[in-house]
Amino acid sequence: MPASQQLVWIYIAAAMAVGVVLAALAAAMFIYQRYNIKLHQSYAKKLLEAHEDERAWVAREVHDDALQRVAMLQHELSEWDSDEFSTSASTASATSATSASPTTPTTPSASDTPRATTVRVEALRDELQDLAVMLRRVAHRLHPAIIDQAGLIPALNQLASDVERASGIHLDTQFDDNGEAAHLSRERALTLYRIAQEALRNVVKHSGAKRASVRTRAANGRIEITVQDFGRGFVSTDPARSAGLGLISMAERTRLAEGEFDIRSSPGEGTTVRASVPVNE
């Protein structure tokens, strides 16, 4: 073989070797990036699971300990009130019978009558009742046990009722899931619930709306949830606003559930938050 042809083959072999090396490097970078993405998703999932476990633990402590203590205080207060009232009434009656005379009528003061004690006890009982309601609401917000017991749709219905009652905002609800939501894994059901919870929190805190809606629908093997308000809205392309309002958290939760997240808003035209996740894993 002539020397010139040998040189050509050497060039070709060298080019092929460089090509193989570059292809190997590209493949290695691709595999490394996929590994990093999976590792990041795994850490993020574990972080969310740890967060939810911590919320569930606090909710159980509030429900099983704090609320039981409040109930016990209410019971003891009722018992004490009954005994105190009986004793005070007997004492007041005896004192009145002893000191009373036809010529010197007595005028009982507020401090030595059972009525004053009863009013104070009633006030304490009302405070304890309010405290119990507040603790129950906190426990429910931290960990919606209704998701485990009844599923996503009843939990969303309960959430909408709670928000409407607490904020005064009229909430329209429409759940057209054709029973598909019952097949969601607990993780994905909780994802959609947390997104609705965060979106409704933004409605109450930022929108200034008097009316909003929560809707779900099933289509193409996915469950989609939409929270829409008719408030002041904002520029959704503004990085300062897009980085806040819990939007990053909602988007991250959706991504980890292999879902899709979208938010649309314009000043004066309200805000629409939409998220969907696959029904099957």
Care to describe what's here?
The protein is built from seven helices and five strands. The chain has 281 residues and is an alpha+beta fold. A five-stranded mixed sheet has the order 1-2-3-5-4, with helices on one face. Strand 1, helix 5 (186-207) and strand 2 form a beta-alpha-beta unit. Helix 1 runs antiparallel to helix 2 (114-142). The longest helix is centred in the first third of the chain and has 97 residues, at 3-99. The two termini are 62 Å apart.
Sheet/helix structural class: alpha+beta
Mean pLDDT score, rounded?
A: 83
Low-confidence stretches: none
Strand content: 5-15%
Give a nutshell description of this structure:
The chain is an alpha+beta fold and 281 residues long. It is built from seven helices and five strands; from the N terminus they run ααααβαββααββ.
Topology (SSEs and partners):
Blueprint: H1 3-99, H2 114-142, H3 145-149, H4 152-167, E1 170-176, H5 186-207, E2 211-219, E3 222-229, H6 239-242, H7 247-256, E4 260-265, E5 271-278
Parallel strand pairs: 1-2
Antiparallel strand pairs: 2-3, 3-5, 4-5
Helix pairs in contact: 1-2, 4-5, 5-7
Salient structural properties:
281 residues, alpha+beta, 5-stranded mixed beta sheet, 7 helices, 5 strands, elongated
